[in-house]
């Protein structure tokens, strides 16, 4: 088990180095950052001085080594536009994005699993058909459109929910949270639903298909022949077997949720990393873009690792293959 | 005469399909007495498994019991509400399926599955149920049951898993066990062990056993009586010695002729020409008539009803005195 975890961790580091090369190469190929930072009337000598102070004249390998070394300590340089350390900017924005992503995932998991189980068990009921139709909409409508429609309905027309921002936040150490104030919670509702809707439909369809599959298996038939209650069969035996693939997908989707938060954050002007990234792209603020890329990859890789480990906890068969293989 | 544990009368099972209703079981009747093993044989699709499933009330839609009645120790069970039938399943009727590799839920320890079943049917504490589970595992011949109880199904071999399945089937001391091809998926050497285990359990607990198989060897070794099924009907039923040594129905004769012997004669095995009709295309009269060597006119028109011949009962016009003249 330890060897398995260690091997996966080493693979993860390999992936992070590869991402580092890509994010570093952005600095080299996305135009001359000095041009973005200075005005039209800056002299060549001044430009050269700035270039030298930023270390842009050093050979590639030196710059890359320095970059990776700094990134490993969460130093991503100074933002061109804000003139502040990128890591400070990201840390300041991260709580907003993580809270949004976690709420969206919880929403997607709970409603996705409930709807999936319901539509598998009552396959021919009208509610199951409605769920199927809703899931089709959730999969095919683009996120930003759903966000805008919700703003129009709940903020503009009904005036129930705020159309942008996080509401009032409370500071706990360096973390800021909107979960403790009413306006913060209200502000969280629409962005979470917008962000989680796609995952919800995905999970719902997955749970439904898996559940139908599991209900056809011999061990469910045997469980019925043993006279177990329908409740025990559906929620004890069938659901647990269904959740194995659902955990993988939902876990891996958490990474996409953070990545897709860019769009939701833009629509709702949510002050998270995604919005920071979009602004950075508009201003060619490469240190922020590169750091964002690294952060998202780190989250992806970490989640992958956690899912692999979770997998072995849920499914005892993997536990023994894992320990046998190492 | 004491009441049989299981009594099936004129059972009909139908499956609704796109091209009309298919009748998988058409008028099957038999009894199983306490402590008796009834072997049910026949080719694939003859309706053996469907008969077993309808007794335990697990025919899945679109299938349904369309007629007849099933009585368990006198109580009619084919029309019980689902919840009452659920209480009978596992408690009064145990079932063993064909494939032990897929019968157990892979995510739960075998002990938890046994304890869950025991506690569903019997009012026992967790500890008492666990002790009972260990005793059951010992009874079905699993070594070191107090350790193996915490194992997962994938840690057991096929034969051992079938023993666990049997322990699950008998954990509430049922009056009837339905074993649906319990040895088909196992090695030959393990088959014999499982068969003798089922036989021993039936004898020790006085449990009636309905043993569904297509293996005549298994039947001859285990059963007290045997029912030969063909195309959803019972062709012949009787004591196993009589049916094996002196089969009456031409189909039963064919089946017995197809059993290889070790006697050393190098006769070719008898083969029944043709194959069983599809459910959508069962011939008029006797469903066996297109393959029968002794067929005569009446077989193509009238459906034969069971006739008593000593201890045996056979559904064939050859044994009806009324058709003797026409046959000659």
Task: For the structure shown, list the relevant keywords.
heterodimer; A: 326 residues; mainly alpha; MetI-like fold; two-stranded antiparallel ribbon; 2 strands; B: 328 residues; alpha/beta; eight-stranded mixed beta sheet; 12 helices; 32% helix; ABC_transporter-like_CS (chain B)
Could you walk me through the main structural features you see in this protein, from its secondary elements to its overall organization?
The complex is a heterodimer of chains A (326) and B (328). Chain A is 77% helix and 2% strand. By secondary structure, chain A is mostly helical. Chain A has a domain of 198 residues: MetI-like (MetI-like fold), CATH 1.10.3720. Chain A has a two-stranded antiparallel ribbon with strand order 1-2. Chain A starts with a helix and ends with a helix. By secondary structure, chain B is α/β, with parallel strands linked by helices. Chain B has one domain: P-loop containing nucleotide triphosphate hydrolases (Rossmann fold, 3-Layer(aba) Sandwich). Helix content of chain B is 32%, strand content 23%. Chain B contains twelve helices and twelve strands. In chain B, the strands form two sheets. In chain B, strands 6-7-8-3-9-10-12-11 form an eight-stranded mixed beta sheet, with helices on both faces. In chain B, helix 4 packs across helix 5. The longest helix of chain B is centred in the middle third of the chain and has 18 residues. The chains are: A mainly alpha (326), B alpha/beta (328). Chains A and B meet through helix 9, helix 10 and helix 13 of A and helix 2, helix 4 and helix 7 of B.
């Amino acid at each position: 088990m330890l060897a398995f975890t260690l091997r996966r961790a080493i693979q993860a580091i390999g992936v992070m180095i590869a991402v580092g090369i890509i994010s570093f190469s952005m600095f080299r190929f996305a135009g001359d950052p000095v041009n973005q930072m200075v005005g039209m009337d800056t002299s060549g000598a001044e430009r050269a001085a700035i270039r030298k102070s930023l270390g842009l004249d050093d050979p590639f390998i030196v710059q890359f080594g320095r970059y990776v070394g700094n990134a490993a300590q969460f130093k991503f340089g100074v933002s061109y536009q804000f003139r502040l350390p990128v890591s400070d900017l990201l840390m300041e924005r991260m709580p907003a994005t993580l809270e949004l992503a976690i709420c969206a995932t919880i929403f997607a998991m709970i409603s996705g699993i409930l709807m999936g189980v319901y539509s598998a068990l009552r396959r021919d009921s009208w509610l199951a058909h409605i769920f199927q139709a809703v899931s089709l909409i959730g999969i095919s409508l683009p996120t930003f459109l759903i966000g805008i429609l919700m703003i129009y309905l709940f903020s503009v027309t009904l005036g129930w929910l705020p159309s942008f921002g996080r509401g009032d936040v409370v500071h706990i150490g360096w973390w800021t949270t909107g979960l403790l104030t009413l306006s913060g919670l209200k502000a969280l509702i629409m962005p979470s639903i917008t962000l989680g809707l796609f995952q919800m439909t995905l999970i719902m369809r997955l749970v439904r298909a898996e559940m139908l599959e599991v209900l056809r298996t011999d061990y469910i038939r045997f469980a019925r022949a043993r006279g177990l209650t329908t409740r025990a069969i559906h929620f004890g035996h069938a659901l647990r077997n269904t959740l194995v693939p659902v955990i993988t997908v939902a876990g891996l989707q958490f990474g996409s949720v953070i990545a897709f938060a860019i769009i939701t954050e833009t629509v709702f002007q949510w002050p998270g990393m995604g919005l920071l990234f979009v602004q950075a792209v508009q201003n060619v603020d490469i240190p922020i873009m590169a750091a964002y890329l690294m952060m998202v990859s780190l989250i992806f890789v970490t989640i992958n690792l956690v899912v692999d480990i979770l997998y072995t906890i849920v499914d005892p068969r993997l536990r023994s293959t894992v320990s046998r293989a190492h | 005469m004491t009441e049989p544990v299981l009594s099936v009368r004129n059972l009909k099972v139908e499956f609704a399909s796109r091209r009309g209703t298919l009748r998988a079981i058409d008028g099957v009747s038999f009894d199983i007495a306490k402590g008796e093993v009834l072997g049910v044989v026949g080719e694939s699709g003859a309706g053996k498994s469907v008969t077993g499933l309808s007794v335990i009330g697990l025919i899945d839609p679109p299938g349904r019991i369309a007629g007849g009645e099933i009585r368990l120790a006198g109580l009619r069970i084919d029309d019980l509400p689902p919840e009452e039938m659920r209480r009978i399943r596992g408690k009064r009727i145990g079932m063993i399926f064909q494939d032990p590799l897929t019968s157990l839920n892979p995510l739960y320890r075998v002990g938890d599955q046994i304890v869950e079943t025991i506690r569903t049917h019997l009012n026992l504490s967790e500890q008492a149920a666990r002790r009972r589970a260990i005793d059951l595992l010992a009874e079905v011949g699993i070594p070191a049951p107090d350790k193996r109880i915490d194992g997962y199904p994938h840690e057991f071999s096929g034969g051992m898993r079938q023993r666990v399945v049997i322990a699950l089937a008998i954990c509430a001391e049922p009056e009837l066990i339905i074993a649906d091809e319990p040895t088909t998926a196992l090695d030959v050497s393990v088959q014999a062990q499982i068969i003798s285990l089922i036989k021993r359990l039936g004898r020790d607990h006085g449990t009636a056993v309905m043993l569904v198989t297509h293996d005549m060897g298994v039947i001859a070794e285990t059963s007290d009586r045997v029912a030969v099924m063909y195309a959803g009907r019972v062709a012949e039923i009787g004591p196993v010695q009589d049916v094996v040594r002196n089969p009456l129905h031409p189909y039963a004769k064919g089946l017995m002729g197809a059993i290889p012997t070790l006697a050393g004669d190098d006769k070719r095995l008898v083969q029944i020409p043709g194959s069983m009709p599809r459910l959508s295309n069962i011939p008029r009269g006797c469903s066996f008539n297109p393959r029968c060597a002794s067929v005569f006119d009446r077989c193509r028109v009238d459906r034969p009803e069971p006739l008593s011949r000593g201890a045996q009962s056979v559904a064939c016009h050859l044994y009806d005195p009324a058709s003797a003249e026409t046959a000659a």
